[in-house]
């Protein structure tokens, strides 16, 4: 359009510059008896009139073209800034996951060092319950006093702290007769052992205290594989919080990540961890920030997650079981994790724009929909049906908008995971 306007303007200008020439006539003196001709006012030519009409149109077209180009440049810059911010959030989430994995590795190394010492017959002072605790949650304890029998040369060892390398202390001279004797190695091993077949902790406890001995398993699926079949709360090796395991549904081995019974107190921060010492099916609860650590225990290429809604009316309602690629995160903030497969459907429903979406739940840290959806399967625009956790500022649903018409309100939401699909 810009080129057409420019050509028209050029033709108009050319026409105005070279008007049609009229032949010159010799002036004739007026006759004496004839009156003088009346004066004729100047009339602009057709070319000049056309030029005057087209000039504002051409100027407007040029101005609009310039504005459009500037808007396109600004939109491109905004897209690049948004992409950079998304990449930063993903990098921060990955750094958090790697830190949790590092803590778990340090704990494993410490436990292995203690195991090697006890197997070699070394006297290792042990604080009850310390071996199975992750390094960040260990309690400081006073080492048991012990004096060795008199020998010519003696070395003294100590418990490694948080994966520290064992060091041999300088040789000491023989001391006086010992006051206390070192406990037998068998006794040390029995205290350092974890439980392969633990019993579930009592239900409905306000805050579960760490037991003297943890379960040897690191996930509910590992407990299932070890023969444990009682639903309930367990303290597992490698996790700083207790977990609630479900062995009764869908082949068992499910770890509860989140329970949402109301809108009170939820936001993008509290959804990562809430009432972590009180796993419950009937109160608001979350250990979502530990989910990727459990996911990484799997050896396959996929993991499974399960969503149940309206759990106050019964289990396995209006949700299902999905398989997701191993690299997908439970704390994703991008809403881009859509390559998930629905393997089992609870009740009768289909994906729809106003309902459950084919997307792994993501955390809304960017403020879409005025921060009302906190954990959701929805898109970033249009609406936020298919939401698991909702901010208290949204009062139209109880507690979250889910899948109308049959399940308009989510009711109690249960969010589970299993690190292996089978």
Automatic annotation (TrEMBL):
Residues 26-38 have a biased composition (Pro residues). Residues 20-41 are annotated as: Disordered. SUPFAM superfamilies: Fibrinogen C-terminal domain-like. InterPro entries: Fibrinogen-like_C (IPR036056), Fibrinogen_a/b/g_C_1 (IPR014716). Keywords: Signal. Residues 1-17 form the signal peptide. The keyword Signal applies. The keyword ATP-binding does not apply. This is Fibrinogen C-terminal domain-containing protein. It comes from Amphibalanus amphitrite.
């Amino acid at each position: 359009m810009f080129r057409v306007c420019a050509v028209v303007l050029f033709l108009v200008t050319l026409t105005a510059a070279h008007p049609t020439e009229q032949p010159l006539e010799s002036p004739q003196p007026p006759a004496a008896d004839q009156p003088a001709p009346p004066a004729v006012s100047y009339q602009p030519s057709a070319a000049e009139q056309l030029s005057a009409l087209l000039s504002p149109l051409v100027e407007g077209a040029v101005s609009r073209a310039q504005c459009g180009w500037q808007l396109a440049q600004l939109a491109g810059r905004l897209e690049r800034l948004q992409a950079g911010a998304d990449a930063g959030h993903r990098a921060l989430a990955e750094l958090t996951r790697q830190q949790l994995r590092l803590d778990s590795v340090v704990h494993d190394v410490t436990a292995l060092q203690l195991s090697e010492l006890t197997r070699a017959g070394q006297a290792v002072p042990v604080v009850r319950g310390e071996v199975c605790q992750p390094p960040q949650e260990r309690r400081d304890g006073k080492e048991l006093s012990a004096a060795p029998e008199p020998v010519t040369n003696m070395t003294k060892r100590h418990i490694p702290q948080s994966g520290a390398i064992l060091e041999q202390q300088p040789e000491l001279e023989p001391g006086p007769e010992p006051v206390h004797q070192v406990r037998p190695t068998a006794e040390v091993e029995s205290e350092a052992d974890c439980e392969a077949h633990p019993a579930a902790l009592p239900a409905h406890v306000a805050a579960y205290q760490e037991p003297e001995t943890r379960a040897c398993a690191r996930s509910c699926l590992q407990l299932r594989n070890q023969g444990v079949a009682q639903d309930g709360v367990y303290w597992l090796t490698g996790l700083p919080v207790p977990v609630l395991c479900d062995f009764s549904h869908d082949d068992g081995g499910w770890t509860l990540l989140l329970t949402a019974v109301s809108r009170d107190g939820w936001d993008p921060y509290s959804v990562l961890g809430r009432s972590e010492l009180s796993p419950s099916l009937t109160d608001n609860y979350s250990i979502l920030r530990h989910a990727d650590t459990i996911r990484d225990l799997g050896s396959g290429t996929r993991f499974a997650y399960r969503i149940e809604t309206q759990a106050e009316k019964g289990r396995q309602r209006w949700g299902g079981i999905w398989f997701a690629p191993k690299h997908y995160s439970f704390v994703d903030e991008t809403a881009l994790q859509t390559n998930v497969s629905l393997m089992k459907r609870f009740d009768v429903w289909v994906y729809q724009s106003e309902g459950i979406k084919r997307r792994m739940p993501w955390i809304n840290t960017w403020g879409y929909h005025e921060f009302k959806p906190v954990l959701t399967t929805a898109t970033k625009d249009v609406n936020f049906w298919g939401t698991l956790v909702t901010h208290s500022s949204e009062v139209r649903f109880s507690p979250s908008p889910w899948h109308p018409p049959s399940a308009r309100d989510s009711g109690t939401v249960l969010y589970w995971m299993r690190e292996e699909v089978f």
